[in-house]
Amino acid sequence: CMWVKSHRQKKGPPGPFPWPFVGNAMQLGQLPHLTFCKMAQKYGNVFKIRLGSLDIVVLNGDSTIREALVKHSSAFAGRPNFTSFKIISGGKSMAFGGYSDIWKAHKRIAHSTLRAFSTINTETTKQFEQHVISEVQDLIQVFLRLSSGGQYFYPYHECTVAIANIICALCFGKRYSHDDQEFKALVGRNDKFGQTVGAGSLVDIMPWLQAFPNPVRSLYQSFKDLNREFFDFVKSKVSQHRETYNPEITRDMSDAFIGLIDHSPGAGLSKDYVEGTVTDLLGAGQDTNSTALTWIILLLIKYPHIQQKLQDEIDRVVDQDRLPTSGDKTQLPYVQAFIYETLRFSSFVPITIPHSTTSNVTIDGFYIPKNTVVFVNQWSVNHDKTTWNNPHIFDPERFLDEHGQVDKDLTSGVMIFSVGRRRCIGDQLSMLQMFLFTTIMLHQCSFQSNPKEQLTMDCINGLSLKPLPFTVNVRPRGNKTREVS
Ligand code: HEM
């Protein structure tokens, strides 16, 4: 009787039958989040799969995910001990590092510094906004140049440069030209990064694949190369900062981290955490936001009537003789609804960075032992039929109430920055950035799809979902901006 009781208490989650060697790896498909949604229908919101020889628990649905990540926050705050994670940010990554007291101090420093340089108060918000505005203006000029003579172009790479510049300006006080090939090459390789650390990646799960010449091995090699190159770039910038460091003047976030880490031994972080933190912020900040911007442009050209409606709203609120600012936000509910709908519909970070359990824990009645790898399926939250009507349809209006105002209960139901201890620290900065890019771009230009192209919503998977390449033509609106020839 005692045995039955303890046995029942330790009932593990159900799941599909795992095949020898590969487990369920071959069942994941190109877009694992969709496979997980199907499996959740069959097995419930907590289920177990096996990848290689590793048992993985997959969490689905808003209430289950919150029960785990918020209610049992420290039990779910770990990261798996994957080899690939140790290569990131010189082995001193906060985003990919395990849960510990050092990690807590590290996250606190990273979060408070990022906020201090972006959205902590109206003064810093204004300064940050200035960076963003000049990047959008520059991006618009590049778009118009690439569109001259009615040409169409793929916008992703230019978006990456603009977004990377914003975070570079915060970290190093320096931006780069769109013509700087070296910088473009450095920031333009997010896909390989995401494909290696994303939830469907086989690199860590079946490490023996690296022993054979195959796509996994070459992906892993280029992952190592790009991480080293990226880290070396940051190292040289940080060492220039150390050489010219003056405690009286904090020029940028690198100086702030040097002050908080090198010059405050009490924090318990060795000096190389400065480089680790800066590399994390540059990496996390640019891939996600340039993907967001590419989705925004795709959806604008896919739904011209929505683009028109956005422009109508912006025109009503912002005159021709000034640019939109964050102060206009409350008067632009349709723009806000459009951004939330872009995040919900694309769910472009469909599965968070993998978590792992730091202790034994029970969720929805299922026992999960310590050190279990956990995948968190954010897509399942954003496409849950019980929360959203026709979740597969792109419809910004779903977020507006009968007075045309943004319904906060609904917007808070979108899950893209995760929840709990591992929640993204760039959420506010990113929301502000997306708002400014969208409003300024639409205040100044119109976006047209290429009539020779069939636009699809299909994606390339990685840590983030990117739309398949598409081309666009950008035209200035009225006499607001002159086309650059
Ligand atoms: C982590 C989403 C922008 C810094 C994450 C995670 C997600 C996410 C899903 C993983 C959370 C988890 O594992 O549970 C996004 C999205 C963004 C964005 C959708 C843009 C729209 C940024 C920016 C920065 C940033 C701009 C910094 C400049 C980080 C860091 C972590 C993180 C440092 C690791 C947190 C931890 O492990 O505790 N983000 N992010 N993110 N993000 Fe973001």
TrEMBL record:
The reply on keyword ATP-binding is: no
Which Gene Ontology terms of cellular component type are present?
membrane
PROSITE patterns recorded for this chain? CYTOCHROME_P450
Q: Which SUPFAM superfamilies match?
A: Cytochrome P450 (SSF48264)
List the GO molecular function terms.
heme binding; iron ion binding; steroid 17-alpha-monooxygenase activity
Binding of heme occurs at 424
* Subcellular localization: Membrane
| Any one GO biological process | hormone biosynthetic process
Its chief place of residence is: membrane
Pfam family, any one: p450
The alphabetical list of record keywords is: Heme, Iron, Membrane, Metal-binding, Monooxygenase, Oxidoreductase
Query: Which co-factors does it depend on?
Result: heme
Keyword Iron found: yes
Sequence similarity: Belongs to the cytochrome P450 family.
Q: What is this protein called?
A: Uncharacterized protein
The organism of origin for this protein: Pyxicephalus adspersus (African bullfrog)
- Native organism taxonomy: Eukaryota, Metazoa, Chordata, Craniata, Vertebrata
